[in-house]
Amino acid sequence: MAEKLREQAETRGRDRISEADRAVELRVLAAEQEAKEILEEAVKDAARRRAAADGYAADIRAGATAEARDLVGAARAVAADVREDGLELSSDIQELSRTLRMNAERLVRDIKQAHARMTADLDEVDPSPRPPGRRSAAVRATDAQRSPTRS
C-alpha cells in the first residue's frame, strides 16, 4: 500500500508538474502575444508620430519658403524703387546743372552789359584818349551780346 500511495503521489506530482509546464507555456505564449501586440501598437504609434512630424516639417518648410519668396520680392521692389529714385535724382541734378549754367551765363552777360553801359557813360563824361589796341566799352558790349560766353 505504501508503495501504491507513493506511486500515486509521484503520478499526481508528475501530472501537476505537466500541468504547471502547460500553464507556464500558455502564460509564456500569452505574454509573447501581448508583447507582440504592444510592439505592433508601438510601431503604429511611431509611424503616426512620424507622419505628423513629417507633415509639420513640410508645413514649416513651405512657410519658410513662402516667407523667403516674399522677402526677396520685397527686396527687389525696394531695389527698384531706390534705382528709380536715383535715376530721378540724377535727372534733377542734371537739370539743376543746366539751369545754373544758363543763369551763370546770363549773369556774366548782364554784368558785361552793365559794365559796358557804365564805361560808355564814363566815356561821355571824360572822353580822354585810350591806350592803343583797346576797344571802347560800347564796342565790347555789342560784341558780348553777339557771342554769349560758354562754360
Describe it.
With 151 residues, the protein is mostly helical. The protein is built from 2 helices and no strands. The mean pLDDT is 88.
Instruction: Sum up the overall morphology in one term.
Output: rod-shaped
Instruction: Give the beta-strand count.
Output: 0
Portion in helices = over 70%
Mean pLDDT: 88
Order of helices and strands: HH
Number of helices: 2
The secondary structure category is mainly alpha
Radius of gyration: 57 Å
Question: For the report, how would you describe the main beta sheet?
Answer: none
Strand content: under 5%
Low-confidence stretches: none
Question: How many angstroms separate the termini?
Answer: 149 Å
Helix and strand topology:
Layout (H helix, E strand, L loop, with lengths): L1 H124 L11 H10 L5
Helix pairs in contact: 1-2
Keywords:
89% helix; 151 residues; mainly alpha; 2 helices
Short description:
The model has no long low-confidence stretch (mean pLDDT 88). This protein has helices at residues 2-125, 137-146.
